[in-house]
Structure formats: C-alpha cells, structure tokens
Amino acid sequence: MKKMKFILLIIIALCTVTGFSQNKKAKKKADKDTHIFRYEIECAGVGTAGTYVVKVWSYSKKPFVAFDQAKKNAVHGILFKGFPASNACRQAQRPIANPGVEQEQAEFFRHFFRDGGEYLKYINASGNSARETIKVGKEYKVSAIISVAKDQLRKDLETAGIIKELSSGF
Questions:
Q1: Cβ neighbours of residue 50 under 8 Å, at least 6 residues apart?
Q2: Which of 23, 106, 153, 164 has the largest CB neighbor count within 10 A?
Q3: What is the pLDDT of residue 101?
C-alpha cells in the first residue's frame, strides 16, 4: 500500500512538472513570436494627458499568452509603428522613435522588452472585460485595451540617449 502511494505521488509530481514545462514552453514560443512583433494596433480612445489608449490585437496558440504579449506589443507599437486615425481618435499618431533605432539599439530593446522588463512601467492594461478572442486557424487573435504613458516613455528614452530629444532637430 505504501509503495502504491509512493508511485502515485511520483506520477502526480511528474504531471505537475510536465504541465509547468508546457506553460513555460508556450511562453517561450510566444516570446519568440513577439520578438518579430506580429500584431495590429489602433486607437481605442482618448486617455489622460501624456498617454495613448490603444487596442492591440496579438496572436498566439494560447489566448492567455496573447494577452500577456499584447502589453509588449502596445509599447512596441507606440515606439515603432504609431497608429492611424479612427473613429476613436481624430488624428493619426506617428511613432516615437525613428525606424532604424530598433536595430541600432537592439541590445537595449532586447533587455527592455524581456519578461518583467522596463516596458511594464509604461503600461496600464484594463481587466479581462477588455479582451476579445477570435479563433483564427490554429491560433487565437486576442485584443487588449492598453494605456501607454507615451510622454514618460519618450522622456526616459531621451534621457538614456536611445532617441533624440524633440528640440534637438533632425
């Protein structure tokens, strides 16, 4: 009987470890997918002064992973893509950084966008109610409404010497 309990405990432990490693594996895959930054970004409304409120659509095989990646994608979009005008916003917004900065400062941005990275201090994601999930083939397209502190982001990147100050000219 003791032997049976011991074997059962080992089986439970292995199943738990396997489950954790699969989640970790999914997260790692999503991080790899996010590294190529495949997402859509649009204006979701007017935020407080110094912020943009955007709706970001991210893709992943696991919906919860896509939602987590949407946070990175929102900051990336504000930095390098900008977004078009829409019913929610009258004006299109240009990206904060010039296109070449991402490659020129690749090491900085790799660190900046890592899990738990600096990008997190510039975002505020609304709760689950803001999510939309659409099954697209073998993956999910998940939306999130994210508020990005674009003025603080710009200021911190200027201070770090990553982007030029607006007053410095072109």
A1: 149, 150, 151, 152
A2: 153
A3: 94
Residue type at position 41: I
DSSP one-letter code for 48: S
Q: Could you write out the DSSP letters of every residue in 61-122?
A: SSHHHHHHHHHHHHHHHHHHT-B---SS-SS-B--SS-TTHHHHTHHHHHHHTSTT-GGGGG
Is the pTM for the entire model greater than 0.70? yes
How far is residue 85's CA from residue 39's CA, in Å, rounded to a whole number?
Answer: 17
The two three-digit tokens of residue 163, written as one number: 């982007």
Distance between CA 73 and CA 77 in Å, rounded? 6
Q: Token digits for 67?
A: 């939602």
- The per-residue pLDDT for range 72-131, each reduced to its tens digit, is 999 999 999 999 988 888 889 999 998 799 999 999 999 999 989 999 999 987 655 467
The rounded radius of gyration (Å) of the Cα atoms in the chain is 20
Contacts of 71 (CB under 8 A, 6+ apart): 119, 120, 123, 125, 144, 146
